[in-house]
Amino acid sequence: MLGNKLHVKKGDNVVVLSGKDKGKKGKIVEALPKKGKVVVEGVNKVKRHTKPSQAIPQGGIIVKEAAIHSSKVMLVCPACNTPTRIKKSSLANGSMARTCKHCGEIVDKEK
């Protein structure tokens, strides 16, 4: 099992590296670090047959996104707009930041 740390976060734009949705881009809707998975918008759609309930009175078939393993996605750098690996670099004030390996731009700051 993967540790509790993922290389991507909720809100990151990613590209899918393998599987039936290979090459698709989307935004991370939910990160599940304990399972090592992420839910990407518009990727890995599954159909769920639901019974009628208070929330969904008519029931029916619902199409939603399922989780995929975090190793199957790669972060898209907002500066150079290319799929890239990240490196952790320390800033002057002592905090860490995720940095693009291609262009060297800071993707975001961490605690």
From TrEMBL:
This is 50S ribosomal protein L24. It comes from bioreactor metagenome. SMART domains: KOW. One of its GO terms (cellular component) is ribonucleoprotein complex. Signal peptide: none annotated. Pfam families: KOW, ribosomal_L24. GO terms for molecular function: rRNA binding; structural constituent of ribosome. Belongs to the universal ribosomal protein uL24 family. The lineage of its organism: unclassified sequences, metagenomes, ecological metagenomes. One of its GO terms (biological process) is translation. Residues 7-34 form the KOW domain. Keywords: Ribonucleoprotein, Ribosomal protein, RNA-binding, rRNA-binding. PROSITE patterns: RIBOSOMAL_L24.
